[in-house]
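Following the same procedure, sequence and fold were stored together, as reproduced here:

>
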Amino acid sequence: WLGWLRAHGSDQDLGETWAWMKGNRLLDEKSAGEVAWTLWDRRSYGTAYALWTDWLGTTQLLANTRFDTAPRETPFDWTLGSSPAVAVTRANGLDVRFSGTENVAFSGVRQFTVVPPGRYRLSAEVSSDNLTTDQGPFFRIFDPANPGRLNVESAPIQGTVMRTWIGVEFTVTRGTEALAVELERRPSQNFDNRISGTLHIHQVS
């Protein structure tokens, strides 16, 4: 029934069924995550966040900030996407290894959140080992419904960097309800453009 509602029911139908399942102790993490994703894909960001945090029993701007647990299947935890050119692994934080085989466009590390208007700062403790090319990985924070309304980036990380903090400050204005926090790398236009090296993300906040 819940699966049918996710495809055909209204947000109100989902909310009422959620409440009934919770009252009868029929909810589990899988169904909670699936409903959260359904509402998120419908751009019902606040409702998705409210139901997920109700299931979780806590509210947080970012989850799993040290990458010390396997991400949950929800918009409100990390998506960790690897490819033949980029290996992403959890190892006392997060290791992102570029193989040196492609001029890769990468955006495989991502988490969504819901925030009220205000002033925010994304901080990340990072280190790197011989990240090549003129295009290093960086953090991007944007409004997934309208990137033109909010779209900011940290400085790119290049070369070898000892463990340090980087950050970016931004203002969320009325109209922006949700944020995407994403690690990206843009393709280089240079001849020597196949990126190699390792970025280690120790923690984010």
About this structure: The first strand starts at residue 79 and ends at 80. The chain has a mean pLDDT of 93.
